[in-house]
Design a protein that fits this description.
Layout lengths: L5 E3 L9 H20 L13 H4 L2 H15 L4 E5 L6 H10 L13 E5 L5 H12 L3 E7 L5 H26 E5 L5 H9 L2 E4 L13 H9 L4 H14 L8 H14 L4 E6 L5 H15 L7 E6 L8 H6 L4 E8 L26 H18 L4 E6 L4 H22 L10 H10 L6 H9 L2
Parallel strand pairs: 2-3, 2-4, 4-5, 5-6, 7-8, 7-9, 9-10
Antiparallel strand pairs: 1-10
Helix pairs in contact: 1-10, 1-14, 3-8, 4-8, 4-11, 9-14, 10-14, 11-14, 15-16
Bound molecules: 5-phosphoarabinonic acid.
Protein backbone atom coordinates (compact mmCIF):
# COMPACT_ATOMS: atom_id res chain seq x y z
CA UNK A 1 0.00 0.00 0.00
CA UNK A 2 1.42 3.42 -0.86
CA UNK A 3 2.23 5.64 2.10
CA UNK A 4 0.12 8.79 2.25
CA UNK A 5 1.11 10.29 5.58
CA UNK A 6 4.56 10.32 7.10
CA UNK A 7 5.14 11.96 10.46
CA UNK A 8 8.59 13.44 10.79
CA UNK A 9 9.48 14.21 14.37
CA UNK A 10 13.19 14.96 14.03
CA UNK A 11 12.91 18.39 15.59
CA UNK A 12 10.74 17.35 18.52
CA UNK A 13 12.73 14.63 20.17
CA UNK A 14 15.20 17.09 21.76
CA UNK A 15 12.32 18.48 23.82
CA UNK A 16 11.09 15.12 25.13
CA UNK A 17 13.46 12.47 26.55
CA UNK A 18 13.12 9.11 24.73
CA UNK A 19 11.82 7.22 27.77
CA UNK A 20 9.11 9.84 28.35
CA UNK A 21 8.10 9.73 24.71
CA UNK A 22 7.78 5.94 24.85
CA UNK A 23 5.33 6.48 27.76
CA UNK A 24 3.22 8.86 25.63
CA UNK A 25 3.18 6.35 22.79
CA UNK A 26 1.88 3.70 25.18
CA UNK A 27 -0.84 6.07 26.39
CA UNK A 28 -1.82 6.81 22.79
CA UNK A 29 -2.12 3.11 21.94
CA UNK A 30 -4.30 2.59 25.04
CA UNK A 31 -6.45 5.58 24.03
CA UNK A 32 -6.84 4.14 20.52
CA UNK A 33 -7.93 0.80 21.94
CA UNK A 34 -10.52 2.55 24.08
CA UNK A 35 -11.75 4.60 21.13
CA UNK A 36 -12.09 1.60 18.82
CA UNK A 37 -13.73 -0.49 21.54
CA UNK A 38 -16.61 2.01 21.72
CA UNK A 39 -16.42 1.96 25.52
CA UNK A 40 -14.97 5.44 26.12
CA UNK A 41 -16.81 8.68 26.96
CA UNK A 42 -18.92 10.10 24.17
CA UNK A 43 -19.09 6.71 22.47
CA UNK A 44 -22.56 7.41 21.08
CA UNK A 45 -20.81 9.78 18.65
CA UNK A 46 -18.41 7.37 16.98
CA UNK A 47 -20.29 6.89 13.72
CA UNK A 48 -17.46 8.61 11.81
CA UNK A 49 -14.92 5.84 12.59
CA UNK A 50 -16.26 3.38 10.01
CA UNK A 51 -17.80 5.93 7.70
CA UNK A 52 -15.40 5.48 4.74
CA UNK A 53 -15.91 1.70 4.67
CA UNK A 54 -19.65 2.17 5.16
CA UNK A 55 -20.40 4.71 2.44
CA UNK A 56 -23.06 3.22 0.17
CA UNK A 57 -23.16 3.30 -3.61
CA UNK A 58 -26.75 4.52 -3.24
CA UNK A 59 -25.59 7.66 -1.40
CA UNK A 60 -22.92 8.39 -4.03
CA UNK A 61 -25.57 7.86 -6.73
CA UNK A 62 -27.99 10.34 -5.15
CA UNK A 63 -25.24 12.94 -4.85
CA UNK A 64 -24.24 12.44 -8.48
CA UNK A 65 -27.87 12.79 -9.59
CA UNK A 66 -28.09 16.24 -8.02
CA UNK A 67 -24.78 17.28 -9.60
CA UNK A 68 -26.04 16.14 -13.00
CA UNK A 69 -29.38 17.86 -12.59
CA UNK A 70 -27.83 21.18 -11.54
CA UNK A 71 -25.07 20.99 -14.15
CA UNK A 72 -27.76 21.74 -16.80
CA UNK A 73 -28.72 25.24 -15.75
CA UNK A 74 -27.46 26.24 -12.30
CA UNK A 75 -24.70 28.87 -12.26
CA UNK A 76 -24.42 29.52 -8.54
CA UNK A 77 -24.87 27.14 -5.60
CA UNK A 78 -25.14 28.79 -2.19
CA UNK A 79 -23.98 26.36 0.48
CA UNK A 80 -25.46 27.38 3.84
CA UNK A 81 -23.99 26.11 7.11
CA UNK A 82 -21.65 26.94 9.98
CA UNK A 83 -18.94 25.13 11.97
CA UNK A 84 -18.92 21.45 11.17
CA UNK A 85 -21.70 22.02 8.66
CA UNK A 86 -19.40 24.15 6.51
CA UNK A 87 -15.68 23.96 7.22
CA UNK A 88 -14.94 20.46 5.88
CA UNK A 89 -16.45 21.19 2.47
CA UNK A 90 -14.80 24.61 2.34
CA UNK A 91 -11.41 23.07 3.24
CA UNK A 92 -11.54 20.41 0.52
CA UNK A 93 -12.96 22.70 -2.18
CA UNK A 94 -10.29 25.36 -1.53
CA UNK A 95 -7.48 22.80 -1.41
CA UNK A 96 -8.43 21.15 -4.70
CA UNK A 97 -9.71 24.04 -6.82
CA UNK A 98 -7.87 26.51 -9.02
CA UNK A 99 -6.70 29.44 -6.89
CA UNK A 100 -8.56 31.87 -9.16
CA UNK A 101 -11.56 29.71 -9.99
CA UNK A 102 -14.08 32.43 -9.16
CA UNK A 103 -12.55 34.66 -11.86
CA UNK A 104 -12.22 31.99 -14.55
CA UNK A 105 -14.91 30.65 -16.86
CA UNK A 106 -16.64 27.86 -14.92
CA UNK A 107 -17.21 24.29 -16.15
CA UNK A 108 -20.04 23.84 -13.63
CA UNK A 109 -21.88 25.90 -11.04
CA UNK A 110 -19.81 28.21 -8.88
CA UNK A 111 -19.93 27.57 -5.15
CA UNK A 112 -20.27 30.24 -2.47
CA UNK A 113 -20.86 29.87 1.25
CA UNK A 114 -23.30 31.65 3.54
CA UNK A 115 -24.72 31.17 7.01
CA UNK A 116 -21.22 31.06 8.52
CA UNK A 117 -21.61 34.64 9.81
CA UNK A 118 -24.36 37.18 10.55
CA UNK A 119 -22.85 40.06 8.61
CA UNK A 120 -25.50 42.30 7.05
CA UNK A 121 -23.07 43.46 4.37
CA UNK A 122 -22.13 39.88 3.47
CA UNK A 123 -25.75 38.82 3.06
CA UNK A 124 -26.76 41.95 1.17
CA UNK A 125 -23.84 41.38 -1.21
CA UNK A 126 -24.92 37.75 -1.60
CA UNK A 127 -28.31 39.05 -2.73
CA UNK A 128 -26.53 41.24 -5.31
CA UNK A 129 -24.73 38.16 -6.60
CA UNK A 130 -27.82 35.94 -6.69
CA UNK A 131 -29.61 38.45 -8.91
CA UNK A 132 -26.95 37.92 -11.61
CA UNK A 133 -26.98 34.09 -11.68
CA UNK A 134 -29.26 31.07 -11.88
CA UNK A 135 -29.31 30.00 -8.23
CA UNK A 136 -29.65 26.80 -6.21
CA UNK A 137 -29.01 26.17 -2.53
CA UNK A 138 -27.78 23.43 -0.22
CA UNK A 139 -28.74 24.17 3.37
CA UNK A 140 -26.93 22.16 6.05
CA UNK A 141 -27.69 22.05 9.76
CA UNK A 142 -27.67 18.96 11.93
CA UNK A 143 -29.82 20.51 14.64
CA UNK A 144 -31.84 22.36 12.03
CA UNK A 145 -32.17 25.30 14.41
CA UNK A 146 -28.81 27.14 14.32
CA UNK A 147 -29.45 30.87 14.00
CA UNK A 148 -26.71 31.89 11.54
CA UNK A 149 -27.66 29.42 8.77
CA UNK A 150 -31.37 29.90 9.53
CA UNK A 151 -31.12 33.65 8.80
CA UNK A 152 -29.18 33.07 5.57
CA UNK A 153 -31.58 30.33 4.49
CA UNK A 154 -34.63 32.49 5.02
CA UNK A 155 -33.15 35.11 2.65
CA UNK A 156 -31.94 32.63 0.00
CA UNK A 157 -35.14 30.59 0.15
CA UNK A 158 -37.28 33.72 -0.36
CA UNK A 159 -35.10 34.80 -3.28
CA UNK A 160 -35.47 31.40 -4.97
CA UNK A 161 -39.19 31.14 -4.24
CA UNK A 162 -39.95 34.62 -5.55
CA UNK A 163 -37.90 34.17 -8.68
CA UNK A 164 -38.72 30.59 -9.68
CA UNK A 165 -42.04 29.68 -8.00
CA UNK A 166 -42.99 26.86 -5.65
CA UNK A 167 -42.49 23.82 -7.93
CA UNK A 168 -39.10 24.85 -9.26
CA UNK A 169 -37.97 25.75 -5.72
CA UNK A 170 -38.23 22.05 -4.84
CA UNK A 171 -35.60 21.33 -7.50
CA UNK A 172 -33.34 24.18 -6.41
CA UNK A 173 -33.13 23.54 -2.67
CA UNK A 174 -31.51 20.53 -1.00
CA UNK A 175 -31.53 20.17 2.79
CA UNK A 176 -29.02 18.14 4.83
CA UNK A 177 -30.18 17.67 8.39
CA UNK A 178 -31.36 15.31 11.13
CA UNK A 179 -33.71 12.49 10.18
CA UNK A 180 -36.62 13.75 12.29
CA UNK A 181 -35.75 16.70 14.57
CA UNK A 182 -35.50 20.44 13.93
CA UNK A 183 -37.12 23.19 11.88
CA UNK A 184 -35.08 22.36 8.78
CA UNK A 185 -36.29 18.75 8.68
CA UNK A 186 -39.84 20.01 9.07
CA UNK A 187 -39.40 22.52 6.22
CA UNK A 188 -37.73 19.97 3.94
CA UNK A 189 -40.57 17.49 4.44
CA UNK A 190 -43.41 19.98 4.23
CA UNK A 191 -42.01 21.91 1.23
CA UNK A 192 -40.86 18.83 -0.67
CA UNK A 193 -37.13 19.66 -0.87
CA UNK A 194 -34.75 16.82 -1.66
CA UNK A 195 -32.88 15.96 1.52
CA UNK A 196 -30.10 13.90 3.08
CA UNK A 197 -29.81 12.65 6.65
CA UNK A 198 -26.90 13.43 8.99
CA UNK A 199 -26.55 10.27 11.10
CA UNK A 200 -27.37 10.67 14.81
CA UNK A 201 -24.01 9.29 15.86
CA UNK A 202 -21.83 11.77 13.94
CA UNK A 203 -21.14 15.24 15.35
CA UNK A 204 -20.74 18.28 13.10
CA UNK A 205 -16.95 18.51 13.15
CA UNK A 206 -16.62 14.82 12.26
CA UNK A 207 -19.16 14.99 9.42
CA UNK A 208 -17.10 15.98 6.37
CA UNK A 209 -17.37 12.47 4.89
CA UNK A 210 -21.18 12.42 5.21
CA UNK A 211 -23.43 14.29 2.71
CA UNK A 212 -22.55 17.43 4.73
CA UNK A 213 -19.17 17.52 2.99
CA UNK A 214 -19.69 15.14 0.09
CA UNK A 215 -22.51 16.98 -1.71
CA UNK A 216 -20.85 20.45 -1.78
CA UNK A 217 -17.49 18.86 -2.68
CA UNK A 218 -19.06 16.90 -5.54
CA UNK A 219 -20.89 20.02 -6.75
CA UNK A 220 -17.49 21.72 -6.97
CA UNK A 221 -16.44 19.04 -9.47
CA UNK A 222 -14.18 17.06 -7.11
CA UNK A 223 -14.11 13.27 -7.27
CA UNK A 224 -15.74 12.18 -4.00
CA UNK A 225 -15.05 8.51 -4.68
CA UNK A 226 -11.31 9.26 -4.64
CA UNK A 227 -11.79 11.29 -1.46
CA UNK A 228 -13.55 8.37 0.21
CA UNK A 229 -10.94 5.90 -1.08
CA UNK A 230 -8.20 7.96 0.61
CA UNK A 231 -10.18 8.08 3.83
CA UNK A 232 -10.75 4.33 3.64
CA UNK A 233 -7.02 3.74 3.26
CA UNK A 234 -6.50 5.82 6.40
CA UNK A 235 -9.36 4.09 8.26
CA UNK A 236 -7.37 0.86 7.84
CA UNK A 237 -3.93 2.32 8.65
CA UNK A 238 -5.12 4.07 11.80
CA UNK A 239 -6.84 0.97 13.17
CA UNK A 240 -3.48 -0.71 13.90
CA UNK A 241 -2.70 -0.74 17.59
CA UNK A 242 1.00 0.05 17.44
CA UNK A 243 3.43 2.96 17.32
CA UNK A 244 3.69 2.83 13.51
CA UNK A 245 0.15 4.16 13.31
CA UNK A 246 0.58 7.83 12.27
CA UNK A 247 -2.47 8.92 14.30
CA UNK A 248 -0.90 7.35 17.40
CA UNK A 249 2.39 9.12 16.65
CA UNK A 250 0.77 12.53 16.19
CA UNK A 251 -1.46 12.21 19.27
CA UNK A 252 1.52 11.07 21.39
CA UNK A 253 3.78 13.87 20.16
CA UNK A 254 1.33 16.70 20.73
CA UNK A 255 0.40 15.49 24.22
CA UNK A 256 4.06 15.02 25.11
CA UNK A 257 4.78 18.60 24.01
CA UNK A 258 1.73 19.89 25.92
CA UNK A 259 3.12 18.26 29.06
CA UNK A 260 6.29 20.35 28.51
CA UNK A 261 4.36 23.62 28.53
CA UNK A 262 3.86 23.85 24.76
CA UNK A 263 0.23 24.89 25.04
CA UNK A 264 -0.31 26.33 21.57
CA UNK A 265 -0.09 24.29 18.38
CA UNK A 266 0.36 26.16 15.12
CA UNK A 267 -0.71 24.25 12.06
CA UNK A 268 1.60 25.52 9.33
CA UNK A 269 1.13 25.32 5.58
CA UNK A 270 3.21 26.58 2.66
CA UNK A 271 0.33 26.62 0.15
CA UNK A 272 -2.50 29.16 0.47
CA UNK A 273 -4.96 26.52 -0.73
CA UNK A 274 -4.60 24.88 2.66
CA UNK A 275 -5.81 27.89 4.65
CA UNK A 276 -9.25 26.38 5.20
CA UNK A 277 -7.85 22.98 6.06
CA UNK A 278 -6.35 24.80 9.03
CA UNK A 279 -9.71 26.38 9.83
CA UNK A 280 -11.37 22.93 9.76
CA UNK A 281 -8.56 21.46 11.89
CA UNK A 282 -8.88 24.34 14.41
CA UNK A 283 -12.55 23.50 14.93
CA UNK A 284 -11.87 19.76 15.09
CA UNK A 285 -9.25 20.02 17.80
CA UNK A 286 -10.47 23.17 19.56
CA UNK A 287 -14.03 21.99 20.02
CA UNK A 288 -12.96 18.45 20.88
CA UNK A 289 -10.21 19.20 23.39
CA UNK A 290 -10.88 22.63 24.87
CA UNK A 291 -12.71 21.43 27.98
CA UNK A 292 -12.45 21.27 31.76
CA UNK A 293 -9.96 24.18 31.60
CA UNK A 294 -7.46 22.18 29.59
CA UNK A 295 -6.43 21.46 26.01
CA UNK A 296 -3.88 22.65 23.46
CA UNK A 297 -4.98 25.92 21.80
CA UNK A 298 -5.09 25.21 18.04
CA UNK A 299 -3.96 28.10 15.87
CA UNK A 300 -2.73 28.38 12.32
CA UNK A 301 -0.40 30.28 10.04
CA UNK A 302 0.01 30.41 6.25
CA UNK A 303 3.71 30.54 5.36
CA UNK A 304 5.63 32.19 3.91
CA UNK A 305 2.96 34.95 4.00
CA UNK A 306 2.71 35.00 7.80
CA UNK A 307 6.47 34.82 8.32
CA UNK A 308 6.25 38.53 7.50
CA UNK A 309 3.70 39.15 10.25
CA UNK A 310 3.88 36.38 12.87
CA UNK A 311 7.45 35.20 12.21
CA UNK A 312 8.97 37.50 14.81
CA UNK A 313 6.73 36.21 17.61
CA UNK A 314 7.22 32.58 16.67
CA UNK A 315 10.99 32.99 16.54
CA UNK A 316 11.40 35.01 19.68
CA UNK A 317 8.19 35.52 21.68
CA UNK A 318 6.91 33.49 24.62
CA UNK A 319 8.05 29.86 24.34
CA UNK A 320 4.68 28.13 24.61
CA UNK A 321 4.39 27.13 20.94
CA UNK A 322 5.00 24.13 18.79
CA UNK A 323 4.41 23.77 15.09
CA UNK A 324 2.88 21.02 12.97
CA UNK A 325 3.88 21.56 9.37
CA UNK A 326 1.79 20.13 6.53
CA UNK A 327 4.46 19.40 3.97
CA UNK A 328 3.43 18.67 0.36
CA UNK A 329 6.13 16.68 -1.43
CA UNK A 330 5.18 17.46 -5.07
CA UNK A 331 3.24 20.33 -6.57
CA UNK A 332 0.57 19.71 -9.21
CA UNK A 333 1.87 22.42 -11.56
CA UNK A 334 5.37 23.10 -12.85
CA UNK A 335 6.92 26.57 -13.11
CA UNK A 336 10.53 27.72 -13.05
CA UNK A 337 12.05 31.13 -12.43
CA UNK A 338 13.11 32.70 -15.72
CA UNK A 339 16.57 34.09 -16.47
CA UNK A 340 16.74 37.86 -16.95
CA UNK A 341 19.46 39.40 -19.15
CA UNK A 342 19.86 42.48 -16.98
CA UNK A 343 19.47 40.74 -13.60
CA UNK A 344 18.58 44.11 -12.04
CA UNK A 345 16.83 42.29 -9.19
CA UNK A 346 19.85 39.99 -8.59
CA UNK A 347 17.66 36.89 -8.89
CA UNK A 348 19.59 35.11 -11.62
CA UNK A 349 21.07 32.78 -9.01
CA UNK A 350 17.56 31.28 -8.89
CA UNK A 351 17.06 31.12 -12.68
CA UNK A 352 15.97 27.67 -13.84
CA UNK A 353 14.98 26.61 -10.34
CA UNK A 354 11.42 25.50 -9.62
CA UNK A 355 9.36 27.91 -7.51
CA UNK A 356 8.65 24.97 -5.22
CA UNK A 357 12.37 24.51 -4.60
CA UNK A 358 12.42 28.03 -3.10
CA UNK A 359 9.29 27.21 -1.10
CA UNK A 360 10.88 24.00 0.20
CA UNK A 361 14.06 25.79 1.24
CA UNK A 362 11.93 28.40 3.00
CA UNK A 363 10.18 25.54 4.81
CA UNK A 364 13.40 23.81 5.80
CA UNK A 365 15.11 27.04 6.79
CA UNK A 366 12.10 28.09 8.87
CA UNK A 367 11.84 24.74 10.66
CA UNK A 368 15.53 24.93 11.60
CA UNK A 369 15.35 28.59 12.66
CA UNK A 370 12.28 27.97 14.81
CA UNK A 371 13.92 24.93 16.34
CA UNK A 372 16.93 27.08 17.23
CA UNK A 373 14.48 29.56 18.74
CA UNK A 374 12.97 26.88 20.99
CA UNK A 375 9.90 25.98 18.90
CA UNK A 376 9.68 22.23 18.30
CA UNK A 377 8.17 21.34 14.95
CA UNK A 378 6.85 18.11 13.59
CA UNK A 379 6.06 17.52 9.96
CA UNK A 380 3.13 15.73 8.36
CA UNK A 381 4.27 14.86 4.88
CA UNK A 382 1.80 14.04 2.08
CA UNK A 383 2.83 13.23 -1.50
CA UNK A 384 0.64 15.82 -3.30
CA UNK A 385 -2.66 17.66 -3.15
CA UNK A 386 -5.38 15.47 -4.64
CA UNK A 387 -8.75 14.09 -3.55
CA UNK A 388 -7.34 10.75 -2.36
CA UNK A 389 -4.68 12.36 -0.18
CA UNK A 390 -7.13 14.93 1.19
CA UNK A 391 -9.50 12.12 2.19
CA UNK A 392 -6.63 10.38 3.96
CA UNK A 393 -5.55 13.59 5.70
CA UNK A 394 -9.05 14.43 6.94
CA UNK A 395 -9.58 10.97 8.37
CA UNK A 396 -6.06 10.96 9.87
CA UNK A 397 -6.81 14.17 11.79
CA UNK A 398 -10.21 12.89 12.97
CA UNK A 399 -8.71 9.68 14.32
CA UNK A 400 -5.76 11.48 15.91
CA UNK A 401 -8.21 13.91 17.52
CA UNK A 402 -10.24 11.11 19.11
CA UNK A 403 -7.07 9.48 20.46
CA UNK A 404 -5.63 12.78 21.64
CA UNK A 405 -8.82 13.77 23.48
CA UNK A 406 -8.85 10.46 25.32
CA UNK A 407 -5.19 10.88 26.33
CA UNK A 408 -6.09 14.33 27.66
CA UNK A 409 -8.98 12.83 29.62
CA UNK A 410 -11.87 14.82 28.10
CA UNK A 411 -14.95 13.84 26.12
CA UNK A 412 -13.82 14.79 22.59
CA UNK A 413 -17.32 14.40 21.14
CA UNK A 414 -19.44 16.97 22.97
CA UNK A 415 -19.40 20.80 22.79
CA UNK A 416 -21.45 22.17 25.65
CA UNK A 417 -19.32 25.33 25.78
CA UNK A 418 -20.70 26.46 22.42
CA UNK A 419 -24.15 27.03 23.96
CA UNK A 420 -23.18 29.92 26.29
CA UNK A 421 -22.97 32.61 23.59
CA UNK A 422 -26.18 31.38 21.96
CA UNK A 423 -28.13 31.74 25.19
CA UNK A 424 -26.94 35.34 25.61
CA UNK A 425 -27.62 36.22 21.97
CA UNK A 426 -31.16 34.85 22.16
CA UNK A 427 -31.78 36.76 25.39
CA UNK A 428 -30.45 40.02 23.91
CA UNK A 429 -32.56 39.53 20.78
CA UNK A 430 -35.72 39.01 22.90
CA UNK A 431 -36.31 35.44 21.74
CA UNK A 432 -39.48 34.16 23.42
CA UNK A 433 -38.55 32.06 26.46
CA UNK A 434 -35.37 34.04 27.26
CA UNK A 435 -37.02 37.06 28.98
CA UNK A 436 -35.42 36.58 32.44
CA UNK A 437 -31.93 36.02 31.00
CA UNK A 438 -32.40 39.15 28.86
CA UNK A 439 -33.27 41.26 31.89
CA UNK A 440 -30.26 39.96 33.86
CA UNK A 441 -27.90 40.62 30.97
CA UNK A 442 -29.16 44.16 30.35
CA UNK A 443 -28.50 45.03 34.01
CA UNK A 444 -24.83 44.21 33.36
CA UNK A 445 -24.50 46.54 30.37
O1 LIG B 1 -19.20 20.38 15.60
C1 LIG B 1 -20.30 20.79 15.88
O2 LIG B 1 -21.19 20.05 16.33
C2 LIG B 1 -20.70 22.25 15.67
O3 LIG B 1 -19.63 23.03 15.24
C3 LIG B 1 -21.79 22.35 14.63
O4 LIG B 1 -21.34 21.78 13.44
C4 LIG B 1 -22.21 23.80 14.38
O5 LIG B 1 -22.53 24.44 15.58
C5 LIG B 1 -23.41 23.85 13.45
O6 LIG B 1 -24.48 23.13 13.99
P1 LIG B 1 -25.70 22.65 13.12
O7 LIG B 1 -25.18 21.73 12.06
O8 LIG B 1 -26.60 21.96 14.08
O9 LIG B 1 -26.31 23.87 12.51
Amino acid sequence: MKKVITIIERSVTGFIPDNEYAGWQKKAIEALKLLDSGQGVGSDFLGWINLPSGTSAELIGRIKDICKDWQKDIELVVIIGIGGSYLGAKAVIEALSHSFSSLLPAAGPQIVFAGQNISEDYLAELEDLMKTRSVACVVISKSGTTTEPAIAFRLVKQHILKRYGKEETKRRIVAITDKSRGALRHMADSQGYRSFIIPDNIGGRFSVLTPVGLLPIALAGIDIEDLIAGALYMERITATKDADNPAVQYAALRNALYSKGKKIELLVNYHPKLHYLTEWWKQLFGESEGKDHKGIFPAGVDFTTDLHSMGQYIQDGERHLFETVISIVSTNRSLTIPKDQEDADGLNYLAGKHIDQCNKMAELGTCLAHLDGGVPNLRIEIPSLNAYNMGALLYFFEKACGISGYILGVNPFDQEGVEAYKKNMFALLDKPGFEIEGELLRKRL
